[in-house]
Fold these 2 entries.
Entry 1:
Amino acid sequence: MILTGPEITAAAQDGRVRIMPFAPDQVNPNSYNVRLGPTLVTYTADVLDAHQPNTTTEFTIGPDGHVLEPGELYLGHTLEEVGSDTFVPLLFGRSSVGRLGLFVEITAPIGDIGFHGQWTLMLTPIRPLRVYAGMRIGQIMFFASAGPIAPYTGKYQAAAGPQPSAYWRDLTQLRAVAP
């Protein structure tokens, strides 16, 4: 079951969903629009390594925007902090942004119950595209869950700004299956 716009508003008012800041004009029929935060991060190495931290460079989107270039992965973030201890959030790019050739999430649209923070966006443009801090870039939907809830307590909890991959922190899981 997906929450409707009026139910997202009610859940934001009674605390079942946390959206900060909350703006009624960002509520859609069955989702909530999120805006692009002011910070972008790119990786600096030619080859990324999943077994170690990768170096990054961070910059702020100025008032004239920033041109995203094809072939580059940009880590952005939502301006809003979004989460729920009750519902499963899913984030997708807005169709109007997709029609400009921008992928907003590559493979990770699902959020965990219990995560609260700014969402990292994996921005990949098809062609050069100027983006602006504060533009509506994605939408989050909320789904009801079934069964006992074990809230998220992972490495990205309370994220503020774009979060580079911390996959390397999970090396113990890799070593458990490696020969």
Entry 2:
Amino acid sequence: MKAIYLIGFMGSGKTTVGKSMSAKWNWPVFDTDEELEKKVKKKH
């Protein structure tokens, strides 16, 4: 499976667009901020 990377400034809608694409096409989505928060068990 190929990947699509969404890049941009904070607050530009990357997470929103990624989750929307995930829901529409049943694709997995990984938000690096969320993954880091899980790993260190802290919120930003």
